[in-house]
Specification:
single chain, 356 residues, alpha+beta, four-stranded mixed beta sheet, two-stranded antiparallel sheet, 8 helices, 8 strands, 52% helix
Length: 356
């Protein structure tokens, strides 16, 4: 194409400066659009590369499939999976859902991350109903409050439990009153520690386990209180020479149990994983030099003192069973400390200095 100039000369149309700039702008715009489209497709492709995990939930007993949870991110925890499972099966609340890698294996901790469990894009978990769940603080408060009230029920003889006319309170031996005071102080301390000292986790336990615990502890409390507060109760053989040292030992062990529990809580609150409890300026914590669980040592001493103070068979049997349980817990914790802390003192024993 040609265009006429003022002088009549003919020139090519594409040689006109305005037309040339418009052409360059059009080409630049076209190149930008094409490039943008490529970048957009690259972003879409990159976004589409996000990997998901499919979680297959099977019944631990029947091995039948319950559901398949799709689009589970590898960064999800077991707690997140439980909430996804609850959305798929609303009848199962997260607190009562137990998930296992193997049908007979342990329950997976809620903090476990899926990417650490999955060997491929599909992971199979086994579901088990944990039953109705109760918070730990509710469990401890129920157990301690029940023991306190049951003992007081027998002490004040609110019911005719002995099938005979009750004698006057003033005619009771002083050890009966001391035993009630010591027993009440012990469980009032336990209740206050549960509320204000111990850092209980948000975990739960099965209701049936709480009922078993209450049946054991409340049953022994009934047995002990019945004998100690019986009108025909026989005081200790050596009288005050046996009673008062036992009372002092009971109070000392109770104080030691409290201060060692406080020391344990303070170390846990620091959040330093490579730190274990060491003795402080408080003399009650000096037992940490020799044993891993002095709080259990003091607890055992409390019940041995109560046995000597009251000199009754039910208290002796209960003290023996509690001591065996405390020894088991102490040995388990002691082994864990030795495994977790490379610089853990080798001279420490689990619960009894130089022995156990």
């Amino acid at each position: 194409m040609y265009a006429l100039h003022k002088g009549g000369a003919a020139i090519k149309e594409d040689m006109v400066p305005g037309k040339q700039s418009e052409t360059k702008s059009f080409l630049s715009l076209s190149q930008f659009v094409l490039t943008s489209g490529q970048l957009g497709r690259y972003a879409i492709q990159k976004h589409s590369k996000i990997s998901y995990v499919e979680v297959e939930i099977l019944d631990a007993q029947t091995k039948k499939q319950i559901c398949v949870l799709e689009k589970i991110l590898p960064s999800f925890t077991i707690a997140d999976v439980k909430h996804k499972f609850h959305k798929a099966c609303p009848q199962w609340y997260p607190s009562r859902v137990g998930l296992h890698l193997e049908c007979t294996g342990p329950v997976l901790n809620e903090t476990k991350v899926i990417k650490n469990l999955a060997a491929s894009s599909i992971i199979t978990l086994y579901f088990r109903d944990l039953g109705t769940q109760i918070s730990w603080i509710t469990v401890f408060l129920t157990e301690y409050t029940g023991r306190l009230l049951i003992y007081l029920l027998f002490y004040f003889r609110l019911l005719n439990l002995y099938g005979m006319e009750d004698i006057d309170h003033c005619s009771r031996h002083p050890v009966v009153h001391l035993a009630c005071i010591c027993h009440s102080l012990h469980y009032i301390k336990q209740i206050l520690e549960t509320l204000f000292v111990h850092s209980l986790s948000n975990g739960n336990t099965a209701l049936k386990k709480m009922l078993k615990g209450c049946a054991f502890y409340w049953g022994f409390t009934i047995w002990m209180a019945y004998y100690i507060n019986h009108p025909l109760y026989t005081p200790p053989s050596f009288g005050n020479r046996q009673i008062f040292p036992a009372v002092v030992c009971f109070l000392v062990c109770g104080a030691g149990n409290y201060f060692t529990n406080v020391a344990l809580v303070q170390v846990h609150k620091t959040g330093i994983k490579n730190n274990f409890v060491r003795p402080t300026y408080n003399p009650f914590t000096w037992l940490f030099k020799l044993v891993s669980c002095p709080n259990y040592t003091y607890e055992m001493g409390t019940w041995i003192s109560f046995t000597i103070m009251t000199q009754t068979l039910p208290v002796a049997v209960f003290s023996l069973l509690v001591s065996l349980q405390l020894i088991f817990w102490a040995q388990r914790k002691h082994c864990k400390y030795q495994k977790d802390f490379k610089n853990y003192p080798s001279y420490r024993t689990a619960m009894i200095p130089f022995m156990l």
